[in-house]
Request: fold
Amino acid sequence: MPSLLEQCDARAGAAFAALGLDAGFGRCGVSNRPDLAPFQCNGALAAAKAAGRPPRAIAEEVAEKLSADPFFAKVEIAGPGFINLSPADAALAARAAELARDSRCGVAPAATPRKVVIDFGGPNVAKPMHVGHLRSTIIGDSLQRLFRFRGDDVTSDVHLGDWGLQMGQLITEVARVMPDLPYFDEGFTGPYPADPPVTMDDLQMLYPRASAACKDDPVRLEEARQATRDLQAGRPGYRALWTHFVAVSKAALKADFDALGVQFDLWKGEADIDPLIPAMVEDLKARGVAVHDQGALVIHVAREDDKRDLPPFLLLKSDGAALYETTDLATILDRRDTLAPDLYLYVVDARQADHFEKVFRAAVRAGYASDGQLEHIGFGTMNGPDGKPFKTRAGGVLKLADLLRMATDKARARLMEAGLGQQGEEAEREDVAAKVAAAAVKFADLSNHRTTNYVFDLDRFVAFEGKTGPYLLYAAVRIKSLLRKAREAGATPGPITVAAAEERDLVLALDGFGEACRQAYDKRAPNVLCDHVFVLAQAFSKFYAACPVLPEKDASVRASRLALAAATLSQLELALSLLGVAAPERM
Ligand code: ARG
Reply:
């Protein structure tokens, strides 16, 4: 079921071919002068060079052929040989009917599904999620939805940071505060208590304290290092305590992810990967991939043509300790062996670009993956008004749960001011406020290209005017209410006809969904989808203002407009769902 643009491509291609020219010259695009025509073909300019003839002459011959095709209402030449193409209303109506019937809203699934692992979220045990994790979560979730929609076999993995020095720091801090707990008694033979000795709040208080103490005091740091080594060597009390830290953190993290409507297939942690490291290191040494360098074990990953100095990949430090990058390399090995992915995506802060560059090069050198199979999907920071990564007024990192609470408070107030979302029981009103808040935060994050930094401005995110999540929810809810009223009045959708300019523009907007999905997918760029939903919502709003639906006297026109409204709602909801945004029934 080709889009209108693809149908223009095919027809213009055939016209070029009929002149003995390459059909590829017929490639069309969305016009940059939509006031003149929705589509344009610039192929005559390139064809002129190839054929050694004036572009205008070629354009005229192509245009003459296309004018005879009832698919087009108007074919015009502009400038040196641009061909402006306007499909006929009947062609628009036929395409709209296809879109209205199709549960995938005109986007065919990929012919070759791929096995894709998406690593995102990446929160750490005992630390609250902050806005960096929020961005990873929102962008990663949109990508997992988009890739699944395309037909890929996606496995998402949260890759929990549950290993390393911070665990030793916590253990030693707890040992100071509660030295009598059995976890620290080496003579204790168990069983250890089933209930955790700390809450999430305790952990969030203890960890920063431990980390600060280790910065100031080398003795404390050595203590924490020793505890980390003991934990990693399997000291039973430390393992038992660590298991509590992980369980308490996971419960809190799951609540945060639930609030965002985000799910992961795998909850693997760095600790799950740790046992694979010794054999991997031995193998890399044996194959000469890893070499000794000043007491450490490294993999040389720098290349001749590197524009900047990339330090070697550090496999093991001189004290034998594994690092963040060691774990990431072993994780690739684990994923290869358990999932055999075609593609690995890492949705992680752009500031970790060097880390991933080293990991990917090491993985290729080790033969675990090939170039191009591993992608770092980096993103910029969410900044405060001062242009620096956002901090709370107290100077701390903003916790995700607090951010969502702030957004929900603001959404509630906005809804109240606008006289919206006040029907129903308290529970429904709260649900509407939560949906508006989530849409506001997610859409604000996704609507910029992921690599750009943006400024945290809740007032703007939660506004019902402009390119915002709440505006789009309101657009969807308005159509839902129209369709509900139509049902109550016994009006049903019928065959689509297109006559008004606003109807034309709405069909053209609907038709652009496939191209938007393709680009968003190819560039791993959900902002392209955001642009599309906004264009669609605006096209609907103009249509709805200009073309009466329920008040329309002509029953067939009314039925056609209802069908257009229903098709718009389906696509709007589908596109929003790919962004991880859910619309309420009413507000
Ligand atoms: N836990 C890490 C952090 O907070 C992010 C993990 C990203 N994923 C990965 N495979 N390294 O920075």
Notes: The CA atoms of residues 140 and 392 lie 25 Å apart.
